Please model this.
Amino acid sequence: MGRQQVGLFASGGIDPATMRDLRDVADGFGVGSYVSNADPVEFALDVTAVEGEPAAKRGKLDGPRAVYRTDDGGHESRRADEPAPDEGRALLEPLVRDGDLVRNFEIDEAADRALEDAAAVGLADAMYTGTDV
Model:
């Protein structure tokens, strides 16, 4: 105890019932996905390395990560120094490293890849395809 100046902000899957349950202990709430009119994809981003050195919150895996799309439309996250899954395709590809461009980037290729990934996870019907509505 003794940290009365530290506020508690709750977020991630927060709905009215959760706010009622936590209103006596939380100072604020993040309710973005609850109030959106789209079906949200819940995810969390965590710091896993600082200046190239493994670092993470207690209970989280540290070290740089690699994420792969699997043939069944799922994804798998591993430490970057671990081998890729046999059926996985890397989703994270560096574009800039230490201020230098390390690969070419074509916006049309990126859009095509986004549509392919959306189709792989069942979201293709919900995505804007660039055609007039």
In short: Strands lie at 9-11, 28-30, 49-50, 53-54, 65-69, 75-79, 89-90, 96-97, 100-101. The mean pLDDT is 79. The chain has three domains: 7-44, 51-92, 93-128. The two ends are 57 Å apart (CA to CA).
